[in-house]
From TrEMBL:
Organism: Candidatus Carbonibacillus altaicus
Protein function: Catalyzes the removal of elemental sulfur and selenium atoms from L-cysteine, L-cystine, L-selenocysteine, and L-selenocystine to produce L-alanine.
GO process annotations (BP): cysteine metabolic process
CDD domains per record: SufS_like (cd06453)
InterPro entries for this protein: Aminotrans_V_dom, Aminotrans_V_PyrdxlP_BS, Cys_dSase_SufS, PyrdxlP-dep_Trfase, PyrdxlP-dep_Trfase_major, PyrdxlP-dep_Trfase_small
Cofactor: pyridoxal 5'-phosphate
Family per record: Belongs to the class-V pyridoxal-phosphate-dependent aminotransferase family. Csd subfamily.
Protein name from the UniProt record: Cysteine desulfurase
Top enzyme category: transferase
Aminotransferase class V domain mapped to chain residues: 23-392
PANTHER family given in the database record: CYSTEINE DESULFURASE, CYSTEINE DESULFURASE 1, CHLOROPLASTIC
Length: 408
C-alpha cells in the first residue's frame, strides 16, 4: 500500500487549510512524519532518555543502545560496510561542510581541482567555494544541457589528474535530473580523487547501495525521508574517515586529554563532539522502518509515476513553462505559469490548500541560467497520489483564471 491511503498514518495531512483539504506537495523541502516516527520519539523521551556513551545506569544504556541501533539501521539502509562509516550530523548541509573543512582542507592545495555542476544546491557549492579560496584550488563546472542533463562523457572528461574532489547532487532539487554519479566515481578513482554525493533528494526516494555506487562520501537529511529535523548523515569510507581530523572539538570525541594535547576517538565518534541528536536518531530509525515497510523499489516507482503524470499534465496546459526534462525526472516538478510570479502562484495555491515551494530553491546560479528569479516547485512523496496531481492541475487552471489578463 502506498499513496493517499497512507494519510491515515500522517496526522498532519488530515487537516484542512481554510475549507480545502491539505494537498502537500513540498516534500522535497521537508517531508511530513508518520505517527510511527512521532510515537517512537515520544516513547524514547517517556521511557529511555539519558545521555549516551556515559552513564552506567539503565537509562544511559538504553539511550546508547537506541542511538547506536539507529546507526546500524542507517548502515543497512544504504548498504555501508560497517556502522563506523555512519556519522550523525545535523543534516546534508552540515555533512557537506564537514567534508570540505576536514578532508578538503587537509588534501587540497594550489592547482588542485574540484569538479561540480552549476546546478548544485548552495549546500553543495558554498563549502567548495570557501575551500577553493582557502587552498588555492579551482572549481571546475561541467555544463549540463539546457534541460539540465549532465552528459556522462562531458563529466568524465572534466575529471583530470588535478581533480581531487568531484561533488555532485545525485538528484537535482530543482530539475529532478539524475546525475551519472557511477561513471564519475569510476573516473575520479582512476586519478586518485574522491566523489562526494549530495544525496538529499535521492536517498529518500530510491534503494541505495553506497558500495555498488562506489561512493566515497554521501550526505543526506533525516527530515526529507519521514524523519525528524535536526539529524542527517555523513557516510564516509572508513579508510578515509580514519585519517581525517575532527570538525568540532569537545566532549565525547576524545581518547585522552591533557592540558596541552588531546587524541581522538575512532570514527564515527571522532566527528560527533558533544551530546548528539539522540531522540532524532531514534526518529530516523523509525522512519527507515516505515520506508522499508513500503519497500524502496515501490517508493521510487511511485514518485516517478506521479512526477511523470504531473509533468505530462502540466506540459499540456498552454502558458506553463516546465524547467528541466519532460521525462525521467525524480520527484520534483518545477514550473512557472505565464509571467505570473512564483510567489503569487504559490499564494493562490495556498488558498486552495495546495502547499508548494516558490523561490530560488537555494540554487541561484541555476535560476540565473534558467533566466528566472524564481519558480514554483511541486514535489511528491509516498503519501501523494493521482488525486494530488489532479489538484495541482486544477490549481494551475485556477491561477490562470485568477490572473487572466496576463494571458490576454
Ligand atoms: N542539497 C539538496 C539537493 C537539497 O535539496 C537540500 C535541501 O533542500 C540540501 C542539500 C540541504 O539540506 P538540509 O537543509 O537538510 O541540510
Amino acid at each position: 500500500m502506498i499513496g493517499r491511503a497512507l494519510i491515515e498514518d500522517f496526522p498532519i495531512l488530515q487537516q484542512k487549510i481554510g475549507d480545502a483539504p491539505l494537498v502537500y506537495l513540498d516534500s522535497a523541502a521537508s517531508s511530513q512524519k508518520p505517527r510511527a516516527v512521532i510515537e517512537a520519539i515520544s516513547r524514547y523521551y517517556e521511557h529511555d532518555h539519558a545521555n549516551v556513551h556515559r552513564g552506567v545506569h539503565t537509562l544511559g544504556s538504553r539511550a546508547t543502545e537506541a542511538y547506536e541501533g539507529a546507526r546500524e539501521k542507517v548502515r543497512r539502509f544504504i548498504h555501508a560496510r560497517r556502522a563506523s562509516e555512519i556519522v550523525f550530523t545535523r543534516g546534508t548541509t552540515a555533512s557537506l561542510n564537514l567534508i570540505a573543512k576536514t578532508y578538503g582542507e587537509a588534501k587540497l592545495g594550489p592547482g588542485d581541482e574540484i569538479v561540480l555542476t552549476p546546478n548544485e544546491h548552495h549546500a553543495n557549492l558554498l563549502p567548495w567555494q570557501r575551500l577553493a579560496r582557502q587552498t588555492g584550488a579551482r572549481l571546475v563546472f561541467v555544463e549540463p544541457s539546457p534541460e539540465g542533463i549532465l552528459d556522462e562523457t562531458r563529466l568524465t572528461q572534466a575529471i583530470s589528474p588535478r581533480t581531487k574532489i568531484v561533488a555532485l547532487a545525485h538528484v537535482s532539487n530543482v530539475l529532478g535530473t539524475i546525475q551519472p554519479i557511477q561513471a564519475a566515481a569510476a573516473r575520479v578513482h582512476e586519478v586518485g580523487g574522491v566523489i562526494v554525493i549530495d544525496g538529499a533528494q535521492s536517498v529518500p526516494h530510491m534503494p541505495y547501495d553506497v558500495q555498488a555506487l562506489d561512493i566515497d562520501f554521501l550526505a543526506f537529511s533525516g527530515h526529507k525521508m519521514l524523519g525528524p529535523t535536526g539529524i542527517g548523515v555523513l557516510y564516509g569510507k572508513y579508510e578515509l574517515l580514519k585519517d581525517m581530523e575532527p570538525y568540532e572539538l569537545g566532549g565525547e570525541m576524545i581518547d585522552t586529554v591533557s592540558l596541552h594535547e588531546a587524541t581522538w576517538r575512532d570514527p564515527p565518534w571522532r566527528f560527533e563532539a558533544g551530546t548528539p541528536p539522540i531522540a532524532e536518531a531514534v526518529g530516523l530509525a523509525a522512519a527507515i522502518d516505515y520506508l522499508e515497510g513500503l519497500g524502496m523499489n515501490e517508493v521510487e516507482a511511485h514518485v516517478l509515476r506521479l512526477t511523470e503524470s504531473a509533468t505530462r499534465a502540466l506540459g499540456e496546459i498552454p502558458g506553463v513553462t516546465i524547467y528541466g526534462p519532460r521525462a525521467g525526472r525524480h520527484a520534483v516538478l518545477t514550473f512557472n505559469i505565464g509571467s505570473i510570479h512564483a510567489h503569487d502562484t504559490a499564494t493562490v495555491f495556498d488558498s486552495m490548500g495546495i502547499a508548494v515551494r516558490a523561490g530560488h530553491h537555494c540554487a541561484q546560479p541555476l535560476m540565473k541560467r534558467l533566466g528566472v528569479n524564481s519558480t514554483v516547485r511541486a514535489s511528491f512523496y509516498v503519501y501523494n497520489d493521482m488525486q494530488d496531481v489532479e489538484a495541482l492541475v486544477a490549481g494551475v487552471h485556477h491561477v490562470k483564471e485568477f490572473f487572466g489578463d496576463v494571458f490576454g
